Amino acid sequence: MIRVLLVGVGGMGSCHLDCWRRMDDVEIAGICDVFPGRAAEKALPGEAVFTDMDDALATLTDLDIVDIATPSYLHRELSCKSLARGIHTVCEKPLALSKEDGEAVFNAAEKAGVFFMTAQVVRFMKPYLALREMVKESRFGNVLRARFNRISGTPRWSWENWMKDEKKSGGVPFDLSIHDVDYIVSVFGKPDRVEKTRAVYREDDRLTDAYRADLMYGDACISAEAGWYSGAMPFSATFTVVFEQAVVSFDGVALHVYHADGESEEIDLTTDSNAISGINITSGDGYFEELSYFKRCVQTNTAPTAVPKEEVLCVLSLAEHE
Ligand SMILES: NC(=O)c1ccc[n+]([C@@H]2O[C@H](COP(=O)([O-])OP(=O)(O)OC[C@H]3O[C@@H](n4cnc5c(N)ncnc54)[C@H](O)[C@@H]3O)[C@@H](O)[C@H]2O)c1
Fold this sequence. Notes:
Elements (H helix, E strand, L loop, with lengths): L1 E6 L3 H11 L4 E7 L5 H5 L5 E3 L2 H7 L5 E4 L6 H10 L3 E5 L6 H14 L3 E4 L6 H11 L6 E11 L12 H4 L1 H5 L1 H12 L4 E11 L2 E12 L2 E10 L6 E8 L2 E5 L4 E5 L4 E4 L18 H15 L8 H11 L3
Parallel strand pairs: 1-2, 1-4, 2-3, 4-5, 5-6, 7-10
Antiparallel strand pairs: 7-11, 8-9, 9-10, 11-12, 12-13, 13-14
Helix pairs in contact: 1-10, 4-5, 5-11, 9-11
The structure holds nicotinamide-adenine-dinucleotide (NAD).
The site of nicotinamide-adenine-dinucleotide has 25 residues, from helix 1.
């Protein structure tokens, strides 16, 4: 059994908890959340509850994994704490709000000789895995241009409204856009240059944060457009990739290929055949896959290579300096 301590059980922590519970070989050793009663509300009989991570680490001495899903400004501090105890650690994105803080976490993991992974879930999602294969195999020739979109209503649910505080969440560049910029860097590598534009508008407690990063690879512009809009926009994540011989489009539900000869096809995302990956992804959703991937790495004592340090630090440096 792999024993997990989950730290932070708000929106994303609850999703992680559900994923861990779906794994036969995982036991939730404890849940920790500073919000009074929240961990107890989520815990099943036999699972320890804490409001302080130090208490949890002092009490639970046989942990295999610590999973951190707290607000982003705490990621460095809490990750370093668990790594210093010699426990494999997985932490939600963004790893940190600066490259320097991100480096500190990777250094702590190296010093402790344990595994660390940033949970960049898009890398584990089927439409994006399918696209990765198409690009890597040059299946439709070179990519001429691409656009990734990620839009939602401005978050209103977060603990003490931390997401709307730029110093705590990093705003859209760190919180939302980072999903696509991370994916782009993972597929296309470090860009030759980046052009960024951002519009932020605050009025009373309303916030609009609209951001676009154009990552340039030679003449090819790969755009990541992300926004929190103050209206009740439903969440959407889509992409359009223009290859020499086809256009590949994901509308948030289905993945289509529009071939240059006029034919079109929908890619079947229900089987593994289109989502082949060097990181051995099977079926299921991205959150489940990222956590079970990390768990397998721990079980087999294999370093997690799906979210490499160099790429994470590159992405943090791209998000810095608006
Ligand atoms: N991968 C994704 O798709 C995705 C989506 C949403 C959020 N996130 C990330 O997940 C993280 C959490 O976001 P959220 O939406 O769940 O926020 P949230 O506000 O809903 O939940 C955060 C939880 O952490 C708890 N917390 C705060 N300080 C703590 C501490 N010191 N120790 C223990 N618990 C503490 C809060 O009480 C709250 O329950 C963020 O880093 C965010 O960027 C990722």
